[in-house]
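User: quick one, sequence for these tokens?
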């Protein structure tokens, strides 16, 4: 599996290469990831200013806490975000509707990358 930094660089590139998938979306996500490889990352969708980066961000609309391995599975489409939430593998603070939207957006970028 890819390293966390690599995954977020790929997400950043995908968002910048094809911003249509998130058009009109305004949201700030923070990911607090734990496990063998841990870190805090964020993704910002704000019209033409969309990006993914390492570190904490103020005023996140949706904060997701999960194990790194589960996050990697979710990004690869091997773990459904709703299922992860329902089984306690994903904890969400903030706007749950945005969490559901993110799953669709990540899935569309994942499909485009294949």
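Assistant:
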């Amino acid at each position: 599996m890819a390293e966390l930094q690599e995954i977020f660089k790929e997400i950043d590139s995908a968002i910048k290469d094809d911003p249509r998938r998130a058009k009109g979306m305004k949201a700030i996500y923070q990911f607090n990831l734990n496990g063998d490889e841990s870190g805090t990352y964020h993704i910002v969708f704000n019209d033409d200013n969309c990006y993914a980066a390492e570190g904490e961000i103020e005023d996140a609309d949706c904060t997701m806490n999960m194990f790194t391995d589960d996050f990697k599975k979710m990004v690869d489409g091997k773990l459904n975000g709703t299922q992860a939430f329902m089984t306690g593998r994903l904890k969400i603070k903030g706007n749950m509707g945005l969490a559901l939207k993110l799953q669709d957006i990540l899935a569309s970028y994942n499909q485009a990358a294949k």
